[in-house]
Amino acid sequence: MWSFIVALSVLLLFIAAVLCAVRAAQTARTPQGAVGWVVFLLAVPWAGVPLYLFLGHHRFTGYRVARRESERVVQGIKAYSEHIRPAPETLTMNVKPFEAIANLPVLKGNEAKLLVDGEATFAAIFDAIDAAQEYILIQFYIVRADDLGLRLQAKLIEAAKRGVKVRFMTDAVGSYHLPNSYYEDMRDAGIDVVMPSDQRGPKYRFQLNYRNHRKTVVIDGTTGFIGGHNVGDEYLGLDPKFGRWRDTHMRISGPIVSQLQLIFVEDWHWARDEDLLDALNWAAPDVEDNANAVIVATGPGDTTETGSMMFFSAIAAAQERIWLASPYFVPDIDVMTALTNAAMRGVDVRLLVPDVIDHKMPWLAAFAYFDEIMEAGVKVHRYTDGFMHQKAFVVDHTLAAVGTTNLDNRSFRLNFEAMALFFDADIAADVDEMFQVDFENSYELVKPLALQSAFVRYGAPLARLVSPIL
């Protein structure tokens, strides 16, 4: 009897593995991902089936997007934006691909201030919270109940006590260790909090692999913040393991704040099934700096490969140079092809990555890609002054971007991300200056994979093999 039960269990497991393999072949977003899942499921079904149920979905089909559900809002923003669209002759780059990816127009009348590292970032965010008069929208992927997290909590509670409407949201996976008391203390103070236990969505559908990786702060609909920092002491360089934490945020003002706000509304609507559209200010005034900009939000709820396409479009547009910074480099074929093609066209292509290990698998996998791009002429710079976590790029002297999107499979296909793109020479010059300092704190990688340590030499191909399925 026992042997029959075991045999039946094995048969059912194999049938489940075959069914999952067929589904993976039909739905995986890339051929590499499809092959990876099929091989893994059939070779190791006892591990492959449960992992596929949690990690194998590649489209967040249940995600209801505010921009698409409430066309009146999009049309209202676009109507308001018509008089502040830049004249075509003032643009030195074709912005149509970025507008198509964003489903939002490039607008003039914006400004941005780079906030390099945690001290500058959170000083600016705290000042803006203190100055808020009507409402605060705040979302981070990771929030910790450490000193920085408690300081943020205290600032938000103070704002709520003086009558400011505060809405707070974080990712249930990224902030898994954040205690319920952190949320409850804010709720008791009158802050509207999305509790992880209350959220609709992926926990019900074996889709825990999806993460909302965005870091968004909007004050009164007129001031916004976007970038790579989360809320934790390590982002101030206080973790002895990592030392200095090199990251970048951006303080923005002008009409694109309404676009950033719209992304928050989209996420809030999914988490709470609540429409904030009529409760917010959608007329952020233009400013004197008059930079052209757009917020590009990407994620698995989109029907096309928006994350990868954003980088592809930027790389393809480069005529003189494209410099990119990302803590993780596990690109897809399209981005690899774009990078190698740009280098072969004579474009100055530089990639800034950390030398310090944060997550071992993507750190290892990156080495499996370096040889190919280096042979084409891409310069790989490894940052050594602490851990480099920023997500930024600059194209020629025209386009600069800061946000949350990494150059990896997770950001391209599994995370909800956002980048602020500025088509402006002055802001591009600021990002250029930032990169120059970072390059001074880096070394150029020249040693190929074959000459790396045994750990890297043998680990990199294995990590690359696994990366498409994660």
UniProtKB/TrEMBL annotation:
<dbReference type="InterPro" id="IPR027379">
    <property type="entry name" value="CLS_N"/>
</dbReference>
<dbReference type="GO" id="GO:0008808">
    <property type="term" value="F:cardiolipin synthase activity"/>
</dbReference>
<keyword id="KW-0594">Phospholipid biosynthesis</keyword>
<keyword id="KW-0677">Repeat</keyword>
<dbReference type="GO" id="GO:0005576">
    <property type="term" value="C:extracellular region"/>
</dbReference>
<keyword id="KW-1208">Phospholipid metabolism</keyword>
<keyword id="KW-1133">Transmembrane helix</keyword>
<dbReference type="GO" id="GO:0032049">
    <property type="term" value="P:cardiolipin biosynthetic process"/>
</dbReference>
<keyword id="KW-0472">Membrane</keyword>
<keyword id="KW-1003">Cell membrane</keyword>
<protein>
    <recommendedName>
        <fullName>Cardiolipin synthase</fullName>
        <ecNumber>2.7.8.-</ecNumber>
    </recommendedName>
</protein>
<keyword id="KW-0964">Secreted</keyword>
<keyword id="KW-0808">Transferase</keyword>
<dbReference type="InterPro" id="IPR022924">
    <property type="entry name" value="Cardiolipin_synthase"/>
</dbReference>
<keyword id="KW-0812">Transmembrane</keyword>
<comment type="function">
    <text>Could be a virulence factor.</text>
</comment>
<feature type="transmembrane region" description="Helical">
    <location>
        <begin position="34"/>
        <end position="55"/>
    </location>
</feature>
<dbReference type="InterPro" id="IPR025202">
    <property type="entry name" value="PLD-like_dom"/>
</dbReference>
<feature type="domain" description="PLD phosphodiesterase">
    <location>
        <begin position="208"/>
        <end position="235"/>
    </location>
</feature>
<keyword id="KW-0443">Lipid metabolism</keyword>
<dbReference type="Pfam" id="PF13091">
    <property type="entry name" value="PLDc_2"/>
</dbReference>
<dbReference type="Pfam" id="PF13396">
    <property type="entry name" value="PLDc_N"/>
</dbReference>
<feature type="domain" description="PLD phosphodiesterase">
    <location>
        <begin position="384"/>
        <end position="411"/>
    </location>
</feature>
<keyword id="KW-0444">Lipid biosynthesis</keyword>
<dbReference type="InterPro" id="IPR001736">
    <property type="entry name" value="PLipase_D/transphosphatidylase"/>
</dbReference>
<dbReference type="GO" id="GO:0005886">
    <property type="term" value="C:plasma membrane"/>
</dbReference>
